[in-house]
Q: What sequence folds into this?
């Protein structure tokens, strides 16, 4: 029935995980996106999955679940290809205490001038964020969810403190619950009904390079270069946004990243630029996820966060359970939207 419908707005990694975990549980689920799945910030993500090492964050109970929840997803979705390569960081990139190694050369034999000591987090992993999102969406559809692409959510249908649907470019979609997982777009949709979410766009540049396969074995993270490599030789290298406003500026940034990479690995001199793009990540002002039902507004649930890749499996399962049962998940208690009021 339409009035039992759950609509998830946003088909990035968070929305896809929510749709997957919501579907097949006796409620009709509709996932909508203005573009294709993973066409926004998810596509431009470095997709580094790592466990939080800071224990006093409000979101720490959620973050501690991250890796185990991805192990669960691997069991449920055998085609989910996660590379459990571990990570290496040095030169102050990771200031938190962590396990150290003095054998970086053995872990990264093609690395020129390896440091004497680096932080080695063996549990860390990464995946193709677009392929993972597509897989979650396909699994949600197998469970009965409906996917609507090219459908932009323009406003929430709101009356007497209750959200009853979403206005889109394809018309109104009625729902008992609207779940907003639209990244920075969630802010405007909430603002339209008087709810303020302190979320700012946090741009980051992702450069894709083509290099000889096998140059990088782990996830490398230093202040001057972050990189990981796929089996086909593609290198993903994120870098800080420095105000680039056109393609020429982005290309200059990509060239600097390519040159740093080529100078860091043996056999990387012929590395080529494949693409460069900006990902506009949603960043809550306190850096912590915003997950839950805004007070005083029925029928609405929000899920906005940075570290979306890391948290997608855990947040998707826990938030879906809250939406379906109404029972609060203790792991999400530090992430509620009402902490700002």
A:
């Amino acid at each position: 029935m339409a009035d039992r419908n759950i609509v998830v707005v946003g088909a990035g990694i968070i929305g896809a995980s929510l749709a997957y975990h919501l579907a097949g549980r006796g409620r009709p689920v509709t996932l909508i996106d203005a573009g294709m799945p993973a066409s926004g910030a998810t596509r431009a993500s470095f997709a580094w999955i790592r466990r939080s090492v800071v224990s006093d964050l409000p979101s720490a109970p959620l973050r501690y679940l991250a890796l185990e929840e991805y192990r669960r997803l691997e069991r449920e979705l055998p085609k989910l290809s996660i590379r459990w390569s571990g990570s290496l960081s040095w030169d102050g990139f990771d200031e938190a205490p962590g396990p150290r190694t003095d054998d970086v050369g053995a872990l990264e034999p093609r690395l020129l001038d390896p440091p004497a000591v680096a932080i080695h987090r063996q549990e860390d992993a990464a995946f193709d964020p677009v392929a993972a999102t597509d897989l979650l969406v396909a699994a949600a559809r197998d469970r009965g969810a409906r996917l609507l692409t090219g459908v932009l959510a323009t406003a929430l249908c709101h009356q007497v403190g209750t959200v009853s649907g979403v206005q889109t470019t394809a018309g109104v979609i009625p729902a008992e619950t609207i779940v907003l997982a639209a990244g920075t777009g969630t802010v405007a949709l909430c603002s339209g009904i008087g709810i303020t979410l302190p979320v700012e766009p946090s741009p980051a540049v992702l450069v894709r390079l083509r290099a000889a396969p096998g140059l990088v074995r782990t996830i490398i993270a230093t202040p001057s270069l972050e990189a990981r490599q796929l089996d086909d030789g593609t290198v993903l290298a994120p870098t800080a946004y420095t105000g680039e406003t056109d393609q020429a500026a982005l290309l200059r940034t990509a060239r600097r990243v390519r040159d740093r990479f080529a100078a860091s690995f043996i056999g990387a001199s012929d590395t080529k630029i494949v693409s460069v793009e900006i990902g506009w990540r949603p960043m809550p002002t306190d850096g912590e996820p915003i997950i839950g039902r805004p007070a005083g507004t029925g029928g609405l649930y929000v899920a906005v966060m940075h570290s979306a890749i890391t948290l997608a499996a855990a947040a998707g399962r826990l938030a879906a359970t809250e939406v379906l049962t109404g029972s609060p998940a203790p792991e999400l208690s530090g992430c509620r939207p009402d902490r700002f009021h």
Observations:
- The first helix runs from residue 13 to 22.
